[in-house]
Amino acid sequence: MLAKYLEDAGHQVAHDTSSVKALKKIIEQKPDCVLLDIMMPEMDGFEVLKRLRAEPGLEDTKIVMISGKPYEFDRKRAFGYGADGYIIKPIDMKKSIPRLEWIIQDWIELTFWGVHGTLPVPSNLTTKYGGNTSCVTLEFPRGNLWIFDAGTGIKLLSDHLLSQNKILDRAKIFISHPHWDHINALPFFVPLYQQGNEIEICGPSQGDTSVQEMISGQMDGVYFPIKIKEFSASVSFRDLKEESFEIDGVKISTMLLNHPGQCLGYRVEYKGRKICYITDNELPPESNPYYNQFYVDSLIKFVQEADVLIMDSTYRDEDYDSKVGYGHSPITQAVALAHRARVMTFYLFHHDMEHTDADIDAKLRTARDLLKAYKSQTQCIAPKEKQTFKI
Predict the structure, then answer these.
(1) β pairing state of 250-256 and 244-247
(2) pLDDT at 174
(3) Residue 98 and residue 120 in one domain
(4) Are 325 and 198 members of one domain?
(5) 186 and 73 in one domain?
(6) How buried is residue 87: exposed, middle or buried, by Cβ count under 10 Å (0-12/13-18/19+)?
(7) Using an 8 Å Cβ cutoff, are 285 and 330 in contact?
(8) What tens digit of pLDDT does each residue of 316-365 get?
(9) Is 390 a residue whose pLDDT tops 90?
(10) Among candidates 344, 345, 339, which has minimal Cα distance to 375?
(11) Comparing C-alpha atoms, which of 389, 391, 390, 345 is closest to residue 367?
(12) What is the pLDDT, as a whole number, of residue 102?
């Protein structure tokens, strides 16, 4: 049945019910993707997986386990042996075929759930780009979900996940800093209250106050009626500083940004692709006494040649003169840095709460005109809520 659906979708398929025979065929034919069950006669799927991963010439072959076993133990074991995906039976062909194609093409899904800053601004003047505050996700082929910030956009994400009946396995929430527009909707993220989900909340501590204490503080019963102890998911916390580390084969690096308090920017590197999330960051012009050449050079190095740069572009230049020291950037300075860093695509982000769709359109025109004047290779996009890009 699965072979027929794949053939109808335009794929060339070979199949065998003997794992021993199939192993020989795979080594000879070197397919783009191998689908393995776990509970097979002669040789179980894990043994076939291990042998294939040890075979020269199959390094680029994607291997996906398709099994009726929904257990976390088996999922982790499969990924530990080198599987690229794990799909649970019964198979929903409408979802599984696109999922397989996603794994084969090995892209990252980048989705924006909130692009404004400071305050949510729902109105008929913000229907194009949306009025929610900061929340961005990266979803990897293995299904790992990384969430950046928990502004009001995380409520849209929560609704989406619930509609998909999605279990969050080793999900990460990376908080840039604990200002309200980056954490105040976290208590409304329903997966935190569902058993079976596993979520780690990471971010910078503020002096002696840890990330866990900050999140607990806004849910202490005075500011929010539900306390952190009501979380039913497996929730852990991690304090971050300027550092680099690896999670499931993905490298993540952090950098302190020019913003009040401890605010981190994030760089994610996966199989030659680089995605940078730099929100709440002030880049004064060179004529400003607060201009810091060393910091600008350091930030350029941090985001150098990124495929994706999501960066604070809060103000029009005419707005910035009265907002110096607020911790946010005028559009021309953000564009200049993106160009100098030779990034592939620059995404405008964290728009001022006073800015309407028309204002964002104007900032986008300004950015594109500047890049054209620079004869830059950098492209500029103003993303909308719920808009997804494949990286």
Answers:
(1) antiparallel
(2) 98
(3) no
(4) yes
(5) no
(6) middle
(7) yes
(8) 999 998 999 899 999 999 999 999 999 999 999 999 999 999 999 999 99
(9) yes
(10) 339
(11) 345
(12) 87
Q: Supply 320's token pair.
A: 């910035």
Task: Give strand pairing partners of 380.
Answer: 346
Q: What is the CATH number of the domain that holds 285?
A: 3.60.15.10
Q: Per-residue pLDDT averaged across 170-181, rounded?
A: 96
Helices and strands, counts by H and E, the chain = 12, 17
Neighbours of 346 (CB within 10 A): 27
Alpha carbon separation from 310 to 11, 20, 112, 162, 182 (Å, rounded): 35, 48, 10, 26, 15
Mean pLDDT, to the nearest integer, of 202-227? 92
pLDDT tens digit sequence for 207-219: 999 999 999 999 9
Closest among 11, 59, 101 to 271, alpha carbons compared? 59
Q: Report the candidate in 285, 126, 297, 231 with the shortest Cα–Cα distance to residue 153.
A: 126
Tokens linked to 262: 């401890």
Indicate if 43 and 125 belong to the same structural domain: no
Q: In this structure, which amino acid lies at residue 63?
A: I
> What are the backbone angles phi and psi of residue 235, rounded to the nearest 5°?
-115, 130
Considering the chain, what is the average pLDDT of its residues? 94
Give dist(CA 154, CA 200) in Å, integer. Answer: 15
Query: How far is the C-alpha of 319 from the C-alpha of 330, rounded, in Å?
Result: 8
The stretch 196-208 carries a mean pLDDT of 95
**pTM across the whole model:** 0.92
> Roughly how many angstroms between the first and final C-alpha of the chain, as a whole number?
31
